[in-house]
Amino acid sequence: MEFFYSSPLGALHSLSALVALIAGAIVFRKRKGTGQHKKVGYIYIASMLTLNLSALFLQNMTGGFSWFHLFILMSLPYLLIGMYYPIFARQKNKRWQVYHFEYLSFSYVGLLAAFVAEVIIRVPLAAGVSSLNQFIVGIFVAAGMVGFVGDRVIRYYRTKLFG
């Protein structure tokens, strides 16, 4: 199990990812605007913030900052903008619910893409297979396929929920 986290910070990162995966799935599937939606949604937000902030200090794969850390710059804005609308823009913007839904849904799609990429990369590495090509293909396959399917699902539910 040490392969998946090599420090307490790595364990925190992995645990927060797992919590975010579960909480995000619950929020996405349950009725919107309820007390449960808000409670589980805040769990998702807290776990994603923990995930992103802990990622800043995880450098054991490359020995320093790498292009992996750029994903934090993609993830955090979606998370923060997604929460901006229900907290600060309810009265200012009639479509705040649509924006909240879209930003946080795409935040979750990004999390799913990262999870799939981790599986594609780490499972073969655990078996002793190591290849830069496998790594690059894994990242692009994960991001592309999960992003494409996620976009379609989000469009479907956006239409269903908001017309």
Number of strands: 0
> Which structural class do the helices and strands define?
mainly alpha
Overall domain count: 1
Helix/strand order: HHHHH
Percentage of residues in DSSP E strands: under 5%
- What is the number of helices? 5
Shape: globular
Our Rg estimate from Cα atoms comes to 17 Å
Largest sheet: none
Query: Distance N terminus to C terminus?
Result: 46 Å
How much helix is in the residues? over 70%
- Average pLDDT metric: 85
Low-pLDDT stretches: none
In short:
With 163 residues, the chain is an all-alpha fold. The protein has helices at 8-29, 35-57, 70-88, 96-126, 132-162. It has five helices and no strands.
Q: Which helices and strands, and how do they pair?
A:
Blueprint: H1 8-29, H2 35-57, H3 70-88, H4 96-126, H5 132-162
